[in-house]
Structures are given as C-alpha cells and as structure tokens.
C-alpha cells in the first residue's frame, strides 16, 4: 500500500507569503500599483484628502495634497495625474480643469459628490479624463487611475500650436515667434501670453489672470507690469488689449 503524500505547506518566511498575510490582515493593498505615480490630490476637505493620500502611498504612489484651485494651477506641472474635487474655496473645479487642460495634457480625474448626469457631462467637456462620484470604492478609484494612465501612455504626444496672425506659440516647447523671429520670454510672460492666446476672443479679468498664472499671491500691479513687458517684446501694444475696468484680451498685433 503506497503512502499518501501530504500537501506542501508554504514557507511563511518568503516575501510572497508575507504579502499574502498582510493582505489578509488588511495591512497592505490587494493589488499594488505596478509603478508609482506622482498624484496631485486637490480637495478642500482635509480629512478625506489625508486619508486618500495615505492610501495612495500604500499603493506605491507619491501623492501631494492641496486645498485650493490656485494651488493646483501651480502644482499640476509636476504631477503625472490630478485627482480634482469640484468643491474648492477659491475657484470652481470645472474652471480649474479647463485652465489645466488649456496648457497641459496631464490626466485629470474628477472626484466629487456631484452625481447628476449633467455634472458628469460638464466635467468631461471641461477636459477631465474620467469622472468618479463620492462615495467611491478605493479599489475602483485605483483601477480608474491605472486605466487613465494606460490611455495617456499610448496616446501620441501631439504638439499643440496657437496661431494668431503673425504670432505663433508652440505650447510644448514654450517657444514664441512673431513673423518667424523668436521672442525670448520669461516663464510667467509665456504663461500669461499662452492663457490669453488660448481664449483669443475672451476678456480675462486681472483677478483670474493672477489666480491662474501667479496663484493669487501677487498684486494686480504684477499683471500690468508683465503685460507692458510682453507688449515691448512682441513689438507693439496691439497684441494685448486692455479692457478698462475688466482685464485683458489677445489682440491682432
């Protein structure tokens, strides 16, 4: 009579077995992210944001939390993905999403308590890559993050140009030319010109320019100074038109 073999028990000292035990104990995520992302969390509600930051770290990501739209407009350039709430103290989240999308291809996932179909449509039309409503499951959110990042990874890096008569702006390389001649601009001068050129028929108030370009941390005189400098470098006051008492818009040179 042959002896019946007993099943081999796993070696609990191995990393795989230790990970299984951590998952069963609830001390580690069931599906860690294959590669850490720099994720910007934009949410005025501090406690849920802190909790989300903790969970993102457990999944191997590098999160940064900010509470205001103006802070998001300053920080998004260093992020691989933005988790954006719509309920912010200084700017509406849809406005923040549009401003980010005007100058960047960084993926944006809106995370909000607004659950109506119209809100979702408005969010996607504002440039969001996905729309998640609260309350949400953490694993679902992580899966959506990975899905958005996969789509972003496989999209060809399309160059974005803005042309306004003799004025050409290469948004990707941050190069500006007038009549084919390069115009050297500072970072803020380029950001200001690009914002105006992205909305050529719109008068943008000084306050909005301050929030989107400077993060609302400077005086309104700062806008006037940079507008004056831009006019000089572009070769004429007609490129940036002052609408008295309101703000500025892009002109035709």
TrEMBL record:
Keywords: DNA-binding, Phosphoprotein, Transcription, Transcription regulation, Two-component regulatory system. InterPro entries: CheY-like_superfamily, OmpR/PhoB-type_DNA-bd, Sig_transdc_resp-reg_receiver, WalR-like, WH-like_DNA-bd_sf. The keyword DNA-binding applies. One of its GO terms (biological process) is regulation of DNA-templated transcription. Residues 38-149 form the Response regulatory domain. One of its GO terms (cellular component) is protein-DNA complex. Residues 159-252 bind DNA. SMART domains: REC, Trans_reg_C. PROSITE patterns: OMPR_PHOB, RESPONSE_REGULATORY. Residues 159-252 form the OmpR/PhoB-type domain. GO terms for molecular function: phosphorelay response regulator activity; transcription cis-regulatory region binding. The keyword Thylakoid does not apply. It comes from the Bacteria. This is Putative two-component system regulator. It comes from Streptomyces ambofaciens. The lineage of its organism: Bacteria, Bacillati, Actinomycetota, Actinomycetes, Kitasatosporales.
